[in-house]
Amino acid sequence: MISLSDTTLRDGAQAEGVSFSMDDKIRIIQALDDLGIRYIEAGNPGANALDAQLFSALKALPKLRCASLLAFGSTCRPGLRPEEDEALCRLRDSGADISVIFGKSGPRQSERILRISPEDNLRLIADTVQFLKKNGTPVWYDAEHFFDAWRKSRDYAMKTLDAAAGAGAARLILCDTRGGSFPEEIAEAVAWIRERTDTPLGIHCHNDMGMAVACSVAAVRAGCDLVQGTVGGIGERCGNMDLCTMIPILELKMNEPCLPAGNLTRLTHLSREILEILNLVPDEHAPFVGHSAFAHKAGMHIDGVIKDSDSYEHIDPEAVGNQRRFLLSDQAGRAGIYARLGHILPDLNRDSAEITAVIRRIKEMELKGYTYENADGSFELMALDTLGRRKHYFRVADYHVLCQQMPGSAERAYPSAQAYLKINVNGQDGINAAEGDGPVNALDQALRKTLSLFYPSVSRMSLKDFKVRVLNSEGTASRVRVSIESSDGSHIWNTVGVSENIIEACLIALIDSVDYMLTKYVPDDEISSAILKKGE
Questions:
Q1: pLDDT (tens digit, 9 = 90+) per residue, 231-279?
Q2: What residue ranges define each of the domains in the chain, with the CATH number in brackets?
C-alpha cells in the first residue's frame, strides 16, 4: 500500500496568491482526514507564528479519524546545539505525531548555503534527528535538493541519508526541490538508494518541468512507498505534485491502494472544496477532477461514448466523483442532443420527434444569444420545457434591486446593494429582501432567502462563479449573456440567462439554477411539503 502525505498547508502555503487563516487550516485538515489522507504536514511551528498557534489549537480539538499530523522544520542552525535552537525546540514541543526536518544533500549546498563543511553538515543532520528522537515521536528526514546532489556527488548524498537513518530517522523523503529531474533519473536514483538502505523512502517532487506526477510515478515503481504533494498542485513557483492526479493513478492505474475503500469517489468534491476555501479557481482541464475531464464535444466522440464509454474515456468518471458531460456545438448534432437527454428522458430514442423539437428550440434560443455548451442545467430545463415536461416550483412575481454608495469618508465609502423579491409558490406568496456586496449577490441572497421558507434545501445552495459577456456592440443597450456556476456542497451545475438588462439576465440564470436543484437534488417529500403549505 502506498501512503499519502499532503503538504498543502506547508508547501502549498508558499504558492503565489495563497494564504491561510486559522479556520482555513483546520477546515482543510478535517477535509483531508475525511478523505483518508494518511499524513498531513500542517506547517512549520518554529518559523511561523500562525503554525505555532495551529498546533496549540489542534490539541484541543477531537482526534483525527485517519491522519497523523506532521510538524516541519530545518536542521539545527550552525554554531548552536540543538537544545539552543529555539525553532527546533518549538518543533519538538508542537505536539505533532511526527517531526519532519529538512537538510542539505550535497557539499555545494553545505558550503555555499549553510557555510559549513560537508562533514559538519553530516553531524548537523545526525544531531538534529537524535535531539527530536529523544522526544519520543518519530522523525522523518527530508533530503532537500537530493536528486541534484545525487547527480554530482552520489556518495556524499547517500552519506546524508545514512546520517539521518543512523540517528533514528524513521523515513527518508527524497526531494526534487528544483523540479528539474526527468522520471528516468528519479527511478535510477531511487533504485540505487533502495539497494543501500532498509529505511522506508518517500518522494517529494516539484513541477517546474511539468513532470512532478510522472517523476512520482517513477519513484513509486522504483521503491518509494510514500508520495507527497498538494491539492491542485499548488506550491512554490510552478507548484508541487498534484495529489488529485496522483491518487487516481495509484488506485486505478497502478493497482496501489492509498485511500480507504470507497473514498476515491469523493476526490472531485474534495479538490473543489479545498480550492474554494483558498479562494482559488479550479483548473477545469485538470486530469480526473476537472470539470472538462470527461467532457465530449466532437460528434464522433459523443457517438462513440454512447455506444462504448471505453472508446474515449480511460476510466469511469464516477470512480473519482466526476461526471460525463456532452457539449452542444455545431460538431455534436443529433447524437449530442440525444446523449444529453438520454439520462433524464430514457424513453426517447435517437430518431424521436422530440429530439427534432429540442434541436429546433436550441436554434431559436441561440439566435437570442443563448449557448448551452457549458450550461447543463439550463439546457436540461429548456429541453424539458420544450417537451412540456418541466416542473415549475415557483414564479417570480416582482423584484427590485437598488445600488448605492454607503456614506463615509472618501477612503472608507463602499458600494452596497439591496434586493427585494416577491415569489409565488403554488398560490402562496413569499416576500423577502437581502443586502449584498453587489446587485447579483443581493439578488441571489434574496431569492434563496425567500425560497428557503418553502424549500429548506435551497439554503445549502451557493453561487460559485459568475461570468458576463456582451453579445453585440450597441453601447449600454447591448445584449448580455450571464453564466453562473452553483453548488449545494455535493453537486455543481451551470446555468445561463440572456437579456438587454444585465440584472434580468442574472435573474434568469439564478431562477434556472434553483429550478435545476429542485428538479435534480431535492427529495420528493420536501417538494410535496411545499405544495401542501398552501392549505396551512
A1: 999 999 999 999 999 999 999 999 999 999 999 999 999 998 999 898 8
A2: 7-277 (3.20.20.70), 295-367 (no CATH), 395-535 (3.30.160.270)
